[in-house]
Amino acid sequence: MSAAPDKWRPSLGLVIFAVLATVAVLPLVGLFFFRLYDNQLIRQTQAELIAQSRVLATIYAQEVAARLDGGLTLGAEVPPGVLPDPGDQVTPIRPALDLTANDLLRRRPDALPASRPAQAAYVDIGARLTPIIRETQKVTLAGFRILDPQGVVIAGRQEVGQSLAHVEEVADALRGQYRATLRNRVPDKPPPPIYSFSRGLGVHVFSAMPVIVNNRVAGVIYTTRTPSNIFDHLYQERAKFVLAGLAVILGTILIGLVFSRTITLPMRELIDRAARIGRGDRDAFHPLKHYGTREFAQLSHSFLGMAEQLARRSDYIATFSAHLTHELKSPLTSIKGAAELLQDSVQGKAGSLTPAEQNTFIANILSDTQRLEAMVQRLRELARAESLPQNERTELAPVVADLKSRFPASSIDASGSLDRAIGMSSEKALIVLSHLADNAVRHKAGTIRLEAVDARTTLLVTVSNDGEPISAPNRDRIFDAFFTTRRDQGGTGMGLAIARAVMASHGGSIRLKPTDQGAAFELQFPVA
Asked: Which residues, in sequence order, are CB contacts of 53 under 8 Å at separation 6+?
C-alpha cells in the first residue's frame, strides 16, 4: 500500500484553535452589521413620528373644520387613489425608511421667505397648538412644525412665518401624500471614522404628514427626530455587554476544554499506542485511560483489537513456522540420508548395501514421503479452516450421516437438535467431526456419541468416546499444532489444531471436557 502524499495538513489542535477563534471573533464581526440594527432603530423612530403626527393632525383637522365657515381657504385637492377607502377600519402607515438601500438625502434646505403670509385663521390655529407641541417635545424630544396649505410654518420653535414648501417631503405632503426621508445632520464636515460602522449617528428622520379636510390639504404636520444612537445604547448597557463578553470567553474556554478532553487527548494517546505497538511493546494493548466520545471508544477498541489480533497472528505464524520447520526437517533428513546410501550402492562403492537393506531404505523413504504428504494435506485443511465464512449454512443430520459412512467400523450415535441450522458449511463441519472421530478411532474407541443441545444463539454439541483417556500432562497441549503422541504411527499433530481453527474462524469454539472415561469435547457451533 502506497503512503499518503507528503503535503501540508493542519493538525487537529490547529483546527480546534481555528474553530475556537472563529467562535470568539463572531461577536466582533457583528460590528459590521450595525447598519441593520441602525435601520431597525430608524424605522422605530419613524413609527413614533407617524403616531405623534397623526394625533396632532387629528386635532389640527378639527380646528380647521371649525373655521371653514369663516372663509378659511384649503389647499390642493387630494388626487384619486391617494386616500384610503373610508370604509376601512384600519389604515396603518408602515415605516418604510431603509438605510441599507442608501435612502439618505442631503441636509434639509433652509426655510425661505413666504411668498404671502398665512391667513390669520391658520396663524390662530398655530398659536392654539403651540403649547401642545412644546409639551410634547419635552417628552418625545422630537421637533414639530405645523404648516398651512401653502407650506408656511404656523407653529414651531423656529422658522415661524417662513416657507418650507420647497422641501421634497413637504412638497409631497402638500399634494396629499405622506412622505418620510432620511437626511444628513452634518453634511459639511467629514464623517467620523466610526461612521463606517453605524451610519445612524449622523442622520435625521423627517416625517411630513398631510392634514386632509374635505378631501383637500389643510396643512402638514412636519416632524423630525434623531434616531436612537446604537453606541449610546451600548454604553448604557455596558455592564451587560461586559458580562456577555466574559460569557463568550468562558464559553470558548469551555468548548476548548471539551474538545481537548473528548478528542485531542484520546487521539494523542491512541497515536502513542500505535507507535508503541509498532516498536513491539506488548503492554500497549490495554484500554485507554479516557475515550472521550462513544465513536472514539469504538475506534479505539477496534484498533487495539485489530492490533492485538495481528500481534497474536504474528506470534502464531512465527511459532507455526518454527514447528513446521522442525517437523519437516526430520523426514527430509531421513529421505536425504537414505537416498545418498542408495546412490552409493548403485554406483558400486565399497560397503554397498545388500538387497534387503536397500528395500529397508526404500521403505523408509516411502514412509517419510507419506508423512510429508499427510502433513501437506493437513496444512491445506488448516488454510481452508482459517478462511472467512461466506453465508454458510447446514444441518448436522446430513453431516453425521457422512461421518458414519466415512467411519463404518465405528459405532456412531447421534441425538438431540440435529436439524438446527448452523452457520458453517457441511464440508467444514465434517472436517471438525472427522478429526475428532479419527483421534477416537486411533485411541481404540469403539463407540462415538454426539449430543446436540439448542442454546438459542449457539448449538452445543458434545462429542465423547470410550477410547483411551487423555493424560493430565497432555490436556493443555492437545490443540497445539504438531503436538502428537503417535509420531511413530504417522501422526502429524494437526487434527485438533485444524478443528479449533475451523471453529474459531466461524465464531465458534471447541474445548476438552473433564471426564472419567475416554475423552469428551464440547463444540459451540454458531446458529444460522
From this structure: 207, 209, 221, 223
Measure the CA–CA gap between 498 and 494, rounded to whole angstroms.
6
With 50 as the cut, is the pLDDT of residue 194 above it?
no
Write the DSSP symbol of residue 102.
T
Gyration radius of the chain's alpha carbons: 52
Please indicate whether residue 164 or residue 378 has the higher confidence score (pLDDT): 164
H runs (alpha helix) in 347-406? 355-385, 396-406
pLDDT the model gives residue 200: 44
Closest CA relative to residue 483, chosen from 292, 302, 324: 324
Q: At CA 232, angle to CA 228 and CA 238, rounded to 5?
A: 135
Show Cβ contacts of residue 524 under 8 Å, excluding neighbours closer than 6 positions.
Answer: 458, 459, 460, 461, 503, 508, 509, 510
Model pLDDT, residue 196: 40
Residues 6+ positions from 296 with CB-CB distance below 8 Å: 262, 263, 266, 267
The number of residues in the chain equals 528
End-to-end CA distance of the chain: 36
Contacts 24+ apart (CB under 8 A), 367-372: 367/490, 368/331, 368/332, 368/334, 368/335, 369/331, 369/335, 370/490, 371/331, 371/490, 371/492, 372/328, 372/331, 372/332
82 Cβ partners below 8 Å, 6+ apart?
Answer: 176, 177
**Nearest-angstrom CA–CA distance, 170 and 175:** 9
**CA 460 to CA 462: how far, in whole Å?**
7
* Tens digits of residue pLDDT in 382-392: 666 655 566 78
pTM equals: 0.46
- Collect all residues with Cβ–Cβ distance below 8 Å to 123 and sequence separation of at least 6: 154
pLDDT score recorded for residue 322:
59
* pLDDT of 193 above 50: no
Strand partners, 521: 463, 512
Sign, Cα dihedral of 340, 341, 344, 345: negative
Cell for 481? Answer: 499444532
Contact yes or no for 422/457 (Cβ under 8 A): no
* Contact partners, residue 49, CB within 8 Å, separation at least 6: 142, 180, 205, 207, 223, 224, 225
Q: Minimum mean pLDDT among 330-334, 386-390, 395-399, 508-512: which range? A: 386-390
- Sequence-distant (≥ 6) Cβ neighbours of residue 20 within 8 angstroms: 252, 255, 256, 259
> Tens digits of per-residue pLDDT, 479-526?
776 666 665 555 556 778 778 878 887 888 899 888 878 889 999 998
What digits encode the pLDDT tens for the residues 230-257? 666 667 777 887 888 888 788 888 888 8
Q: What pLDDT score was predicted for residue 59?
A: 94
All cell numbers assigned to 445: 474407541
Q: For 105-113, what is the mean pLDDT?
A: 90
Q: Which residues contact 273 (CB under 8 A, 6 or more apart)?
A: 284, 288, 304
Q: What share of the chain is helix, strand, coil (3-state, %, to 5)?
A: 55, 15, 30
Calpha distance 112→164 (Å, rounded): 7
